[in-house]
Design a protein that fits this description.
This protein is of the alpha/beta class. About 40% of the residues lie in helices and about 10% in strands. The longest helix is centred in the first third of the chain and has 26 residues. One iron/sulfur cluster binds next to loops.
Length: about 375
């Protein structure tokens, strides 16, 4: 029964994502449905508080969460919807590549805590820029034994040295591709670089090789689209290089709305079909993303691995794994000070205007409390 429901779900998903007018309608409508549901949920959450006293005992890194080891914050693209080109132009981002020692320490501690899910994607930057990425994937999957190691890449470097083959052969659980669409001209305008052909052939090679090995990895191509989904779906490159490889484990999706990177991305940065996400009501309740710890390339540990405004070495940093363990940092006064601050209306700079804000709620808390025993 479960299998039939799964197959049916996949067929519906596939139909929506490969049928232009249907995809346009669904993604257009999703923006309004999402905003309506979010406003309703947040109204409810504002009335049912998880108190700081309840939260305190469950504040630390738990094995059910996921850890981010951002292997490098250097990128080879300049996307118009991302803070990266702005923080590079303003010279506020301190860039670097994670040493193997820092990575190993984070992974060993994580494995010891029982963690399984490891994301190698930095807040900004492309993991494939790290020249030692494959050594790190090998260590996390085959030495530390983590079951769910994955990354998000723009795929520009995925053909280089057969990286697409090696990622699959090393046992990566999932590869998420973030790309523009299936038009070279639009890609160059939105991604700000002329690597369309490299990225498109890399995506195809990855999907083809993964299929030849029996689809060991999940692959999702996430279009950060300026064009409507229908324009991508009817393009020759989509039909030739992507559609033939789609399956239950290999999927595409389009972008409903774009995040504002704590206010760094403005409405005028949105072009074509792009829409900026509406700023949700900012409640005096901590954000769920504060509980996903991220290790920066230099060992600094930051709450929230997903957004920055000017720098990832900011007031969300709560320690350094060169000095303390991840567990100690997650239980430390600095981390708790930030989390508790939300209850008092105090937020780190990046959180002040963040459209990614997701308040914790009772359901989230019950699951967290159940998993931390
Ligand atoms: S969205 Fe990703 S690929 Fe584009 S500039 Fe930002 S970090 Fe780089
Ligand atoms: S409000 Fe935004 S920046 Fe702050 S923790 Fe949540 S997602 Fe991260």
């Amino acid at each position: 029964m479960k299998r039939i429901a799964r197959k049916l779900g996949w067929r519906i998903y596939h139909f929506v994502h490969t049928n232009g007018p249907v995809a346009d309608f669904v993604y257009w409508g999703a923006f309004y449905v999402q905003n309506f549901l979010r406003a309703r949920q947040y109204k409810k959450y504002s009335k049912q508080h998880v108190t700081p006293e309840e939260l305190f005992a469950h504040r630390q890194l738990s094995s059910e969460a996921y850890l981010v080891t951002g292997v490098t914050n250097i990128c080879n693209a300049k996307c118009t919807f991302c803070a990266y080109p702005k923080v590079v132009a303003n010279k506020t981002l301190e860039t670097g590549v994670m040493s193997f020692d820092v990575f190993k320490k984070a992974v060993d501690e994580w494995a010891k805590l029982g963690g399984q899910s490891l994301d190698l994607t930095p807040v900004v930057g492309d993991p494939l820029v790290d020249p030692n990425l494959l050594q790190k994937v090998d260590y996390a999957v085959n030495k530390a034994g983590l079951k769910d190691v994955y990354l998000t890449t723009n795929a520009i470097l995925i053909n280089k040295n057969d990286t697409y083959k090696k990622l699959i052969d090393l046992g990566i659980a999932a590869v998420f591709i973030s790309t523009q669409g299936a038009s070279k001209e639009v890609y160059e305008k939105i991604y700000g670089v002329n690597h369309y052909d490299a990225a498109m052939s890399g995506i195809r090679n990855l999907m083809e090789y993964n299929r030849s090995k029996g689809e060991p990895a999940r692959i999702v191509v996430r279009f950060r689209n300026h064009e409507k989904p229908s324009q991508i779906i009817r393009s020759p490159d989509f039909k030739k290089n992507i559609q033939p490889y789609l399956s239950e484990r290999v999927r595409v999706n389009y972008t409903v709305d774009f995040d504002n990177w704590g206010g760094t991305i403005k409405p005028e940065d949105m072009t074509g079909n792009m829409r900026l996400r509406v700023l949700p009501p900012l409640l005096d309740v901590p954000c769920k993303n504060l509980f996903n710890f991220a290790v920066r390339h230099d060992g600094r540990v930051r709450l929230c691995g997903c957004r920055l405004t000017t720098n990832d070495n900011d007031d969300l940093v709560v320690g350094n794994i060169k000095d303390k363990t991840l567990e100690e940092i997650s239980k430390g006064d600095e981390a708790w000070g930030i989390i508790k601050g939300f209850y008092e209306g105090k937020r780190p700079h990046t959180c002040l205007e963040c459209t990614f804000y997701q308040p914790i709620n009772e359901k989230w808390f019950k699951e967290r409390a159940a998993n931390s025993h």
